[in-house]
Amino acid sequence: MSDRRKDMPVKDPASKDVTPRDTPKSRRTRLQILDTSMRLFAELGYDRAGNAAIAEACGLTRGAMLYHFPTREALVEAAAWHIHAAREAMFEAEAAKLKPGQDALDGAVDAYWRLLSSVPFSAFLALERAARQDADVAKAIRPAQEAFDQGAMGNATPGFITAGIDARFQASRDLARFALDGLHRAALTYDQPERVENLINVIKRALHMLNRKGDVHDLWVD
């Protein structure tokens, strides 16, 4: 990983055989490191949020940081799972906000669009960007990526969608997720609010058509 060359070796000789004790204080410190990592990845990006910057933001010494995460790989893998859990928790919270009679498909799209701007989603996007250039980062975050891919807007959020897991449902889920991901990253240079609203409405209508919900037969409303 590129960060390894910046602020820490692969493994510190003094700490290579040390396993952090599972105490309340140790768990609090570990959680603080992971929360701070998530925030700094979102705010600064992967490369600028090095282990030294994370330790400083936590008020920890380099030795204390190494005690909990001896390598950059260990921190990134743990951070990826921590961020994954945060994203799932946010989905569950959004699902609980559904109002009686509210369309679950439309609710899922609206929730996903809102959450794309949140700290956990921004943090994982920073890791995915780094993974395109760094094989170690890609390897470290791959399990969390796969878990999210399996659950996004589906199994992890039963309050939103309960249509099943067949190919039609999978296609509609993927269409919504990747269209919204792309829209979020796009640089719209004019009429942004109107274009975003139109595209999100098209995505919703496409989902209704794919899932044969209601009487939607056209992607565009004249």
What is the gist of this entry?
The protein has helices at 2-7, 24-44, 51-58, 62-68, 72-95, 104-115, 119-131, 135-155, 167-185, 192-210. The protein is mainly alpha-helical and 222 residues long. The model is unreliable at 3-17 (pLDDT under 50).
Task: Walk me through what this model shows.
The chain contains ten helices and no strands. With 222 residues, the protein is mainly alpha-helical. The chain has one domain: Tetracycline Repressor, domain 2 (Orthogonal Bundle), CATH 1.10.357. Keywords: DNA-binding, Transcription, Transcription regulation. InterPro entries: Homeodomain-like_sf, HTH-type_TetR-like_transc_reg, HTH_TetR.
Topology of this structure?
Elements: H1 2-7, H2 24-44, H3 51-58, H4 62-68, H5 72-95, H6 104-115, H7 119-131, H8 135-155, H9 167-185, H10 192-210
Helix pairs in contact: 2-3, 2-5, 2-7, 5-6, 5-7, 5-8, 6-10, 7-8, 9-10
CATH fold-type name: Tetracycline Repressor, domain 2
Number of helices: 10
User: Over the alpha carbons, how many angstroms does the gyration radius reach?
Assistant: 20 Å
Mean pLDDT: 85
Strand content bin? under 5%
Count of the domains:
1
Q: List SSEs in N-to-C order.
A: HHHHHHHHHH
Distance between the termini: 51 Å
- E-strand count: 0
Uncertain stretches of 5 or more adjacent residues = 3-17
**CATH architecture assignment:** Orthogonal Bundle
The level-1 CATH class: Mainly Alpha
User: Major β-sheet, in short?
Assistant: none
Structural class: mainly alpha
InterPro entries: Homeodomain-like_sf, HTH-type_TetR-like_transc_reg, HTH_TetR
Protein name: AcrR family transcriptional regulator
Keywords: DNA-binding, Transcription, Transcription regulation
GO molecular function: DNA-binding transcription factor activity; transcription cis-regulatory region binding
